[in-house]
């Protein structure tokens, strides 16, 4: 039986707030590293924030135009050489099952670059650190604080804690999602969960603002999770969540939600459309909306019955789930972000991996909206279907 490496064992035994210090010491000892830094992606996915004891940390770097950002975007190690100092800095992705957390930057005293076995060992250290960061966040605020460029509103704090991550991948699919404004989101949310044969995805657009919107979304998402974990069908999940929201608000507040179940071996999709989030598909270069029978939002009426619909995804398909905060956004001159502009944005990002698409699309939306404060939060979720043939 394979035993965990010495680095993995040391990380598991360390206190949650000390795991990066333990890893830094191990890398310095194993490879004579001159510096070892951990940078985490901020909530808006625009900067990489150094981990340290606030406020005594170094300056953040841009995800878009920096060497660490290049490694983060490509999800591959990237080396930067300094011949005058006879050293090389290796930037390594820190990710867990496709969820991109940040970058581990290691400066080594080697002008010709690290040997393949050294690079492999450093990436193994970055992978081990990624797993431990996810676990440690249950017991320390160190890494959550490091991700913040500015203070989160209380509603945004509640919403981010509700999310499963911002990207994930398996042989059959890749997922990526993003919310804006990242530090002041209201009621938009997403969720996903996978088993051996099924992937469940939900996209929600709650009414209201601030704490009221966050409380509504938290109730609905946890009701959906409770029903899903009880093994209920997709339509029964919607019914249970509908009853939970109606029981609390008696129809004064409700939640527009899309519920999906992807059958991984076949690509068969079951869907319940309980409201307004839209679904777009890119198939063989053609961008189109998927028309569905829209049913009542969750919690609008008592004892609503939900009927599932069905369609099929093909290998190479890209699905995008987009909230009304995107296509209803207004420019400073009052011009609505049109369907044509949205279709163009989808087409412009067709060559990007799913994890990067939501951030780029929301950046284009910000360009349209300008400095005008957001009237509603915006959500983009992208799913690339690779197909059952990709299963291991």
Automatic annotation (TrEMBL):
Alphabetical UniProt keywords: Hydrolase
Hydrolase in keyword set: yes
Gene Ontology molecular function: phosphatase activity
Domain PPM-type phosphatase, residue spans: 172-385
Pfam families named among the record's database cross-references: SpoIIE
Protein name: PPM-type phosphatase domain-containing protein
